[in-house]
Amino acid sequence: MKSDITRYQVRCIVEECNWRLRIVKVANSYYFQIRRFNHEHTCSNEARFLHQRQASARVIGEHIKEKFHDHRSYKTEEIIQDIHKEFGISCNYHKGYRAKHIALDEVQGTPVDSYQILPSYL
Length: 122
Description:
It is a single chain. This protein is α+β, with helices and mostly antiparallel strands. It has two domains: 2-47, no CATH class; 53-109. Helices cover 46% and strands 16% of the residues. The chain contains six helices and four strands; from the N terminus they run E-E-E-E-H-H-H-H-H-H. A four-stranded antiparallel β-sheet has the order 1-2-3-4, with no helix packed on it. Helix 2 crosses helix 5 (93-108) and helix 4 packs across helix 5. The longest helix has 16 residues, at 93-108. It comes from Dipteronia dyeriana. This is Transposase.
C-alpha cells in the first residue's frame, strides 16, 4: 500500500480481505519493527492466487501427450499457445520444452527404458 525509507505497509491482493502488515523503522537504526499485523486471511486461496494460475511441466505434459500420437512435430511454441488458449495459463519456453519431453517420454518411453529392453533383442 505504502512504502518509503521509514515505513512499509502491505495488504492482501484481495481488497476485501483483512490481512495487513505495517512495519516502521526504529529511530537511528537499520532495524524495523512490526507495528500492526493481522495474519488472518478472510479471503480464499483461490481468490488470492487467481492471477497467478500456473501448471507444472508434468501436468502440461500429461495433458498434451495425446497430441504426440498423431502430430509428431508438435513444437514448443505451439504447446505454449495451446495451453494459453485452453486454460489461460502463461507458460514460458523452458516449461513448454520440459512438458514436451515429458509427453514424449510418456508416449515413446524414456531412453533408459529403451536401453534396458535392448538386451532382450540381442
